[in-house]
Design a protein that fits this description.
- It is a single chain.
- This protein is an all-alpha fold and 656 residues long.
- Among the domains are: 92 residues, no CATH class; 80 residues, no CATH class; 104 residues, no CATH class.
- It is built from 26 helices and four strands.
- It has a four-stranded antiparallel β-sheet.
- A hairpin with a 2-residue loop joins strand 3 and strand 4.
- Helix 17 packs antiparallel against helix 19.
- It is globular.
- The N terminus and C terminus are likely disordered.
Length: 656
């Protein structure tokens, strides 16, 4: 039996070995870095403000620390977006001074916006659930929601066996009352994610929130529940906790062991276990990044092989084949494009991405700039292999969709940006870190343009919004619609990128010491112009937090003031004026939301129960079209011991 080591122990052993091999070089490099650090100790990402509390009614109190920040009751490691807010300290302090003015119009309007936002959220609360399937929409709407999920998220994060799901979906509409509860739950979760890109304004947000609060009876539903909670903003900032539950449930069910080492099962069941384990690894890493937490996974803790490069329909053709120990997982060419190709392409760079985020969010932080460059080289080799593989599919009979191309590149470029982000602050002061500044800026530009291709074009949007507030149209663009309508990870992608771009724009303008007007990069300015209608579109799509739009409008006003040649105290008035105008516009939008939220949606029911507290791992695997009660995960003997318990359920689906 293969030994499974504790992840932290393995990582520590690897770290110690690398340190012994490279100790002398790393020590000399560290000493050189310390010698050239300016008095403010710019080698640390936030050390300039370490130990200080930055008060702001925009971003809440932030306690600046080395390699992280604390806000309210939470600690955020270096990969969390809030670390970047430190660079805008002067703007935060400007608004904080306003908050201390009892007559401040800006604070008064913002407080009214907050009150409206709380009222809107209260209306979306689904209340008590006592029956599943009571808020399924009409067939034509359901078809669109299901298709929206299957053509986007499912193509990268593989969860379902699509032919089986479609078969059960058709059976559901033939006899809805006879459908099993697990499938109804799964359908609602699929539709909750599909709701996000149903239209530009997330008109079915209330239904998505209701479906996102349902529980699971199978691991697939646990994954879908985590994704649905994030996209619909149902405790989306806490999905890392949910992902941890999914990871541990899957380990308890033995997914970290390759099916060939378990009692015999069909190829379909074996491949679905490999696929789910692969998706869970990606989910754990992604949510760790979002939360700024240390990824608690390691390839060394599992012997599960990669999924086979097979289409879903091919698994049905091979359902009678049995897994045998030592049998290769995929005997077919990996060059052709299949339903699994994008997930497998991402997997090829998993170790490199994991190493980066484990270094960034480790506590205590033990990396140096030399470690950053070493990981950069290692990552770029994997990234070039990934892009080469994706380009190769352009000549194949079947090709990836635009959504798949762009989404996978965003996932990987985000990693490169995160790697260098801790040195963005030092790079502004010290040219020795200019390489990191370039990597962060260019990655942010590329990510934003991947989300919104039109952002790279010349924009007519003004930096100071007028009375006619512009919004974005995302018709026909699933990725852009996710960025506008979804929460969590999707919101951070555009917001963090735009913040970095604005910081670079401001910095280069202030660094320009020429006698004429400052030189401005047109692409950065176009993205800033684009980001204003982006934030406004989010509010029109149901976002109740107006601070992102307010903050960006204030920064845009600052850039415009610099372009107009204003300096010193003269900068204050246009910034505050833009902030007040923005707040009033947001207040009007929230009032409209509050009124429209009172209208019930088609098929939406109020008879719902919050099952969030029951999201545990001691449920059955679930009737998810693949395993009709697969096994009771409360007993380890059911999947590592006597296999008699499993055998009937393994064959039940194959014979149905």
């Amino acid at each position: 039996m293969t030994l499974i080591y504790d992840a932290n122990e393995v990582l520590n052993r690897i770290f110690q070995l690398e340190r012994r091999l490279d100790k002398s070089t790393a020590t000399r490099e560290l000493e050189r870095e310390r010698e050239r650090e300016p008095p403010e100790n710019c080698g640390q990402s936030t050390s300039r403000y370490e130990g200080q509390v930055i008060e702001s009614y925009l971003a809440a109190d932030i306690h600046a620390m080395s390699r992280g920040v604390v806000s309210k009751t939470r600690y955020f490691g270096q990969s969390h977006w809030m670390n970047g807010i430190i660079h805008f300290r002067s703007m935060l302090e400007l608004f904080e001074n306003q908050s201390k003015d009892a007559k401040s119009e800006a604070v008064a309007v913002l407080n009214r916006c907050k009150a409206l936002g709380r009222s809107i959220k209260a209306q979306r609360n689904p209340g008590i659930i006592n029956k599943f399937g009571t808020n399924i929409p009409t067939r034509d709407v359901a078809d669109k929601l299901v298709d929206a999920y299957l053509r986007t998220t499912e193509t990268v994060f593989r969860v379902l066996h699509v032919p089986s799901f479609r078969r059960d979906y058709e059976q559901y509409w033939t006899a809805p009352d006879s459908a099993g509860t697990p499938f109804v739950i799964q359908l609602q979760l699929v539709m909750a994610i599909g709701c996000t890109i149903y239209d530009d304004f997330f008109s079915m947000r209330k239904s998505a929130v209701q479906w996102g609060k349902l529980t699971i009876t199978g691991l697939q539903n646990m994954i879908l529940l985590t994704l649905a909670r994030e996209t619909a903003s149902v405790g989306g900032d806490l999905v890392w906790i949910n992902a941890g539950s999914v990871l541990r449930s899957s380990q308890y069910m033995g997914l970290h062991r390759d099916p060939s080492r378990l009692p015999k099962m069909s190829r379909l069941d074996a491949e679905m276990r490999r696929r789910l384990w692969n998706t869970i690894l990606e989910l754990e890493l992604k949510t760790s990044i979002d939360s700024g937490g240390f990824p608690t996974i390691s390839p060394e803790t599992s012997d599960t092989r990669p999924p086979a490069n097979l289409n879903d329909t091919e698994l049905l053709e091979e359902e009678d084949l049995k897994e045998k120990e030592g049998e290769p997982a995929d005997t077919r060419s990996g060059e052709r494009f299949t339903d699994m190709s994008m997930a497998l392409a991402l997997r090829d760079s998993f170790r490199e991405r994991l190493a980066i985020y484990q270094m960034l969010n480790a506590m205590p932080f033990r990396g140096t700039y030399d470690d950053t460059i070493r990981l950069h080289r290692r990552f770029m080799m994997a990234f070039k292999a990934l892009t080469s593989k994706l380009r190769g599919y352009a000549s194949s009979e079947r090709q990836p969709t635009a959504f798949q191309y762009r989404f996978v590149e965003i996932m990987t470029r985000r990693c490169l940006m995160s790697l260098h982000l801790p040195y963005l602050g030092p790079a502004i002061k010290d040219p020795a870190f200019s390489f990191s500044r370039k990597q962060v800026t260019e990655s942010a530009v590329k990510m934003y343009q991947l989300l919104f291709p039109s952002a790279g074009l010349s924009s007519e949007h003004p930096l100071i919004p007028g009375d006619d507030l512009a919004t974005l149209s995302t018709e026909g663009d699933d990725l852009a619609r996710f960025a506008v309508c979804a929460a969590g990870f999707w919101r951070v992608l555009a917001s963090q990128s735009s913040m970095i771009i604005i910081l670079e724009l401001q910095t280069t303008m202030q660094e320009d010491e020429g006698l004429g007007p400052p030189t401005i990069r047109p692409d950065l300015l176009n993205i800033l112009r684009h980001s204003l209608p982006y934030y406004l579109s989010r509010i029109k799509a149901g976002e109740t937090n107006v601070k992102g739009y307010l903050f960006t409008a204030a920064l845009a006003a600052h850039v415009q003031a610099l372009m107009n040649g204003l300096v010193g105290p003269k900068l204050f008035e246009p910034i505050l004026s833009a902030a007040i105008k923005t707040e009033k516009a947001c207040f009007d939008l929230l009032k409209q939301q509050l009124g429209s939220a009172e209208v019930a949606e088609t098929g939406a029911g109020d008879d719902q129960f919050d099952w969030g507290s029951l999201m545990t791992g001691n449920e059955e695997w679930g009737d998810n079209s693949l395993m009709v009660p697969f096994f009771d995960v409360s007993s380890v003997e059911c999947f590592l011991g006597g296999f008699d318990v499993m055998s009937p359920s393994l064959t039940a689906w194959n014979r149905s």
